[in-house]
Amino acid sequence: MTRRAEFEMCLFVVLQSMFLFSLCSSQEFLPEISPDTSPQPFLPFIAPSPMVPYINSTMPKLSGLCSLNFTASESLIQTTSHNCWTVFAPLLANVMCCPQLDASLTIILGKASEETGLLALNRTQSKHCLLDLEQILVGKGASSQLGRICSIHSSNLTASSCPVINVDEFESTVDTSKLLLACEKVDPVKECCEQTCQNAILDAATNITMKASEPLTDNSERINDCKNIVNRWLATKLDSSRAKETLRGLANCKINRVCPLVFPHMRHIGGNCSNELSNQTGCCRAMESYVSHLQKQTLITNLQALDCATSLGTKLQKLNITKNIFSVCHISLKDFSLQESGCLLPSLPSDAIFDKDSGISFTCDLNDNIPAPWPDSSQSSASTCKKPVRIPALPAAASSQPGLYNEEVKRLVILFLSMVLVMLLS
Ligand SMILES: *[C@@H]1O[C@H](CO)[C@@H](O)[C@H](O)[C@H]1NC(C)=O
Ligand SMILES: *[C@@H]1O[C@H](CO)[C@@H](O)[C@H](O)[C@H]1NC(C)=O
Ligand SMILES: *[C@@H]1O[C@H](CO)[C@@H](O)[C@H](O)[C@H]1NC(C)=O
Ligand SMILES: *[C@@H]1O[C@H](CO)[C@@H](O)[C@H](O)[C@H]1NC(C)=O
Ligand SMILES: *[C@@H]1O[C@H](CO)[C@@H](O)[C@H](O)[C@H]1NC(C)=O
Ligand SMILES: *[C@@H]1O[C@H](CO)[C@@H](O)[C@H](O)[C@H]1NC(C)=O
Ligand SMILES: *[C@@H]1O[C@H](CO)[C@@H](O)[C@H](O)[C@H]1NC(C)=O
Ligand SMILES: *[C@@H]1O[C@H](CO)[C@@H](O)[C@H](O)[C@H]1NC(C)=O
């Protein structure tokens, strides 16, 4: 973590504890719901007198040199600023903030092509426009570090290496009806397995890549750049909210496939948990300490937690640990998410919610105590699609433990922010 992220995280915890609860103690953070109670809505904490309305939504200073009409995308930008809210941006980067920022940029650039006939900005424009957009977002409460957090550069608003940006040329090169048919109605669950729209986008991107005057031996980067152009074109054919849903859905297919956590060195586990597990206490203590490092990193989705369990389990097996120490040490899926309170985000795209009385909140799929599945070393990493996993619902591994959790109990974690916080950070 960078110093700034640490600083923000620390403040986050401090401010939380200034209110009614502390993030450091899971029992206080979320009320315990015993496994056998029926699903019940989560009752938000009673907030102290709301401070959020005082957040200083500053008037951004714009360059005046960007031709994009940001006013036309007001609600997208609003949602982006909530998903990328100051302190939360690094914690939600992978799942909420950056995918929403990418989608917004794609839609804004797509809509601009209706006026200009071009699906990309030139270099000068791209610099002014990215700076202006950042200013607008920061003015609405977003982190000022979005460029770094989401690795967005002004080049991302240009054609990059894609040879086609002219709408007419695009439409005469690509089989647009085929592309639209595949992407007009994307079912975010089925799409991740069937990849109908993703394949059509790849196909279209490959076709426009071929228009390049100088051929390359490796076209993969160019095809990638062209995919952005295809996405922008698609965004002009769908209404704004459908376009957003589609782009976020496609992004989530990728997001859910990988564990975003960084795994530190495992030497203590190797020493304590070797083979015959002679000292279970020592092993579980080492595991707990290891997992607590993972928990400081980021909020993840329930499917990412499953990926993380697989990654960690596989690494342990490579250390010749054959016994299921997840089970021995009671490691559950929620143990991989930020803090012990275990908020796992839903696997489908979701947005942070802003309420002027209570601040920023987001919905967690709290899949309490679903044991982390120990990877079956005889199976080569089976993709999610081959497993009988219902994506928005829960991992197959969980269904063997009926009664241990309340499926689809949704609790809202209300996180209060205040003007104090914003001022401290700016
Ligand atoms: C908001 O912030 C700007 C600049 O940071 C400052 O000029 C302005 O007075 C502030 N407004 C309020 C209501 O605090
Ligand atoms: C920008 O879009 C808004 C809403 O669609 C519209 O009212 C406004 O006239 C546009 N501004 C310019 C400069 O085109
Ligand atoms: C870049 O685009 C803007 C707006 O479309 C245009 O006014 C400007 O002349 C272009 N600059 C260059 C160097 O092409
Ligand atoms: C932005 O461009 C950089 C290279 O300039 C690339 O590495 C990065 O993936 C791009 N980001 C997005 C969101 O496309
Ligand atoms: C891409 O080109 C191939 C071969 O010309 C064609 O069959 C396919 O329909 C095209 N796909 C799209 C989406 O343009
Ligand atoms: C066991 O784990 C502890 C930390 O929990 C560590 O200090 C110790 O060195 C480990 N022992 C071995 C043999 O790796
Ligand atoms: C097991 O490990 C723990 C912690 O490392 C240690 O306190 C305890 O003495 C060990 N027990 C045995 C029987 O080695
Ligand atoms: C695991 O066991 C194999 C065979 O017993 C051995 O060759 C290998 O070095 C061991 N790996 C580790 C990391 O201990």
TrEMBL record:
Q: Using the record, list the residue span of the signal peptide; answer none if the entry has no such feature.
A: 1-26
Which InterPro entries does the record associate with it? At1g61900-like, At1g61900_C, SPARK
Q: Which UniProt keywords apply?
A: Signal
CC per GO annotation: plasma membrane
Q: Report the residue ranges that make up the At1g61900-like C-terminal domain in this protein.
A: 257-330
- A Pfam family matched in the record: At1g61900
SPARK domain mapped to chain residues? 63-213
User: Does the keyword section mention Oxidoreductase?
Assistant: no
Coiled-coil-forming residues are: none
Q: What is this protein called?
A: Uncharacterized protein
